[in-house]
Design goal:
The complex is a heterodimer.
Chain A: E1 7-12, H1 23-34, E2 40-45, E3 57-60, H2 65-78, H3 80-86, E4 90-94, H4 96-100, E5 104-106, E6 112-114, E7 121-138, E8 147-159, E9 164-171, E10 179-184, E11 187-190, H5 196-199, H6 201-212, H7 221-235
Parallel strand pairs in A: 1-2, 1-3, 3-4, 4-11
Antiparallel strand pairs in A: 5-6, 7-8, 7-9, 9-10, 10-11
Helix pairs in contact in A: 1-6
Chain B: H1 6-24, H2 31-41, H3 45-50, E1 54-59, H4 64-75, E2 81-83, H5 91-100, E3 106-110, H6 116-123, E4 127-130, H7 144-155, E5 161-165, H8 169-175, E6 180-185, E7 204-207, E8 210-213, E9 225-228, E10 231-233, E11 239-241, H9 249-264, H10 269-276, E12 288-291, E13 294-300, H11 304-313, E14 320-323, E15 350-353, H12 357-366, E16 372-373, H13 377-382, E17 387-393, H14 395-404
Parallel strand pairs in B: 1-3, 1-4, 2-3, 4-5, 5-6, 6-9, 13-17, 14-15, 14-17, 15-16
Antiparallel strand pairs in B: 7-8, 9-10, 10-11, 12-13
Classes of the chains: A alpha/beta, B alpha/beta.
Chain lengths: 237, 409
């Protein structure tokens, strides 16, 4: 049994939104906490179950249009995630999960669907699917190295005054306006799906530090090898 | 068989010549280019080639090529069979297969999941075999809920006889608009894409093999055929020990589907089953290649469900080489690696290679699976002691290994 002090990672609706290797973000957070001696407890919340409000870090992933609409409906009805955020929980919302956090997003036929309104963003369906590697420079305030990952979506996301852009894209589409993702308080949204944290361990550590304080350094050889290889492949250097 | 119109005969013949040239110049087996040439000259060629034949279409995320081969092997009992044995599973490949065997009264065609509606409309195939649907190379493949929806529309209102795996809820939903369905309980190992009801989105409750939606009436239909470990129970309740040579539970499931398809063609189990037992390797899958006393058995795995099946087949006592690429046919996105549970490999000597070996290396590192990183497959093989080793590779990585040892394997 994990102790009461364990870091609680909550994965929201893996039965609806986990299409693109989203489990990777859970595994990376677990590993990076545990290798620093921080005990973790991971809670997999299926869409028929209530979202606990006492978690530390919430993760929500990507998926198809229909499951996305279902997830938004259920999160709104449930209210647990809203209460968790009000208590200061951290969250990483990816792709379809990112869009849900806003006021609206595009449905199966492009029709506007209500989001859950925890981020000041509005999404809609874009003209073409954005598929491929993405590289972006993170907002200086966060002090993170270059963002690298893979995007696969048709969304366009407009940021309101209540959020800041996570990064400025050098390769790829992201939000559709030269920026990728956003953040506000302890919530980060991104189009980098699946194992975004595997490609960006510093982002994983940022989420962890928001709940666990200062973190000891780790041997990141495997992460760095992959980052170097991907950035070189995409930027051609 | 009725005579093809002159234009179709010409298109078909020129396509075959293009295929021969492609083979002779070492560019591949020629089935795609040959079909393309034929279709360019006569866009209606597939429909004309399909006419007056009894056809089965085979589609799924995994096991298409193997099941196509098993059904073909069975139907050879009845007569000549045209088939796209090398996995060229889009219309050009179908044209090529049918024009190569232009007098064959039977045809068994492997069909890409996305192309099934189009190929069914064009060929008017009498039998369709549907095995499983799971996440697969999402950067280029269609999303699977949407795919099942398209199957429903394509099957609706046609006289097609569908043979479908009722243990896969999404396949069941995709097949259930057909006029006639034979349900096969073929098993489902990968369940991560079917926790929700495809009809209403409610949670699916599962108890053993059975499943039902908690919120609507959608539920598992009663199967006529049941795969029970190493045997199949037919609709009359008779139990048949499969005893096929292809390894693993996934292939026993493919064999169960093949027997049900054979029966739809009027071929009884006692005649079909011995034919299935003759199949030992399919397009290089499960064959063993040898170099300097190292015997490497080749397993293909293209997506998370496929990796589970490969782990089931692989021998836990042997070392294992894993090779992953991310070229176009593999999907350029490697995020699926994070959906595979690699912890099963703990305790085995693991060797990692392929063009995306660093993605796999980090994945294994996070799963606490120790491994050796190798620049090439040859290097990985040379690190083995003489004896047996299993190899799991995704699509282009698998083809690279095959061509290194000669495509004949």
């Amino acid at each position: 049994m994990p102790s009461d002090s364990a870091l609680r990672i909550v994965w929201i609706y893996p039965d609806l939104l986990s299409t693109y290797g989203d489990q990777g973000n859970v595994l990376v957070l677990e590993q990076r906490a545990q290798r620093r001696g921080i005990e973790t407890e991971t809670i997999y919340v299926r869409s028929a179950d209530p979202v606990p409000e006492s978690g530390d870090i919430y993760l929500i992933g990507g998926g198809e249009d229909r499951p996305q609409i279902l997830a938004a409906e259920r999160l709104r009805k449930d209210g647990g995630l809203h209460r968790a955020i009000a208590r200061g929980a951290a969250m990483l919302a990816v792709c379809a999960g990112y869009q849900i956090m806003g006021s609206t997003f595009g449905g199966e036929e492009g029709q506007p669907v209500d989001g859950i309104g925890v981020l000041d963003i509005a999404s809609s369906r874009g003209p073409a699917r954005a598929v491929g590697e993405l590289v972006a420079e993170v907002d200086a305030e966060l002090g993170l190295p270059t963002l690298t990952g893979f995007e696969n979506h048709m969304g366009v996301t407009r940021l309101g005054p209540g959020v800041k852009a996570l990064s400025r894209t050098t390769v790829g589409v992201g939000n559709g306006d030269g920026f990728e993702g956003c953040y506000a308080g302890h919530i980060v949204g991104t189009y980098l799906h699946g194992p975004a944290l595997a490609r960006n361990p510093a982002l994983a550590d940022l989420l962890l530090s928001w709940r666990a304080g200062d973190l000891a350094p780790l041997d990141d050889t495997r992460y760095e090898q992959l980052r170097r290889e991907r950035l070189a492949a995409v930027l051609g250097s | 068989m009725t005579q093809l119109p002159l234009r179709a005969q010409l298109a078909s013949a020129l396509g075959r010549s293009a295929a021969t040239l492609s083979r002779m110049t070492g560019r591949g087996d020629g089935s795609v280019i040959g079909g393309r040439v034929g279709l360019m000259l006569e866009p209606d060629l597939l429909r004309q080639l399909a006419r007056d034949r009894r056809l089965a279409l085979v589609s799924a995320t995994n096991g298409k090529t193997t099941t196509t081969r098993l059904i073909t092997s069975a139907l050879l009992e009845l007569g000549e069979v045209a088939t796209n044995a090398f996995g060229a599973n889009m219309p050009a490949g179908h044209v090529s297969a049918l024009s190569t065997h232009k007098d064959a009264p039977y045809g068994v065609l492997e069909v890409d999941e996305k192309y099934l509606p189009e190929v069914l409309d064009t060929t008017g195939a009498g039998v369709v075999c549907l095995m499983n649907l799971s996440r697969d190379q999402m950067d280029r493949a269609a999303e699977i809920w949407l795919l099942a929806q398209k199957w429903r529309r394509a099957l609706s209102g046609k006289p097609t006889h569908v043979i479908a795996n009722c243990d896969d809820p999404l396949v069941t939903w995709g097949a259930s608009t057909a006029a006639k369905v034979t349900w096969v309980a073929g098993g489902q190992r990968w369940k991560e894409d079917s926790w929700c009801c495809p009809e209403c989105g409610g949670p699916l409750d599962r108890k053993d093999a059975d499943w039902a939606c908690r919120e609507c009436t959608f539920h598992r239909p009663e199967p006529q055929w049941v795969l029970d470990d190493d045997a199949v129970v037919d609709p009359r309740g008779q139990r048949w020990l499969l005893d096929i040579q292809l390894p693993g539970l996934a292939n026993r499931s493919n064999a169960a589907m093949a027997l049900a398809v054979a029966e739809a063609f009027g071929l009884p189990v006692e005649r079909a089953l011995p034919r299935l037992r003759e199949v030992t390797s399919v397009a290089g899958r499960y064959t063993t290649v040898e170099r300097d006393g190292r015997h490497a058995r080749l397993l293909l795995a293209k997506n998370p469900a496929g990796w589970l099946e490969a782990f089931d087949v692989s021998d836990p006592q042997q070392p294992i080489i894993l090779s992953v690429n991310a070229q176009g046919p593999d999907g350029r996105d490697t995020s699926w690696l994070w959906d595979v549970d690699y912890r099963i490999l703990r305790g085995r000597p693991v060797f990692v290679t392929g063009e995306r070996r660093l993605d796999l290396a980090l994945r294994l590192d996070v799963a606490d699976v120790p491994f050796s990183l190798c620049g090439t497959f040859s290097e990985a093989l040379s690190m083995q002691p003489p004896g047996r080793v299993d190899v799991i590779a995704n699509y282009t990585a698998f083809q690279q290994i095959r061509s290194e040892f000669g495509r004949a394997v």
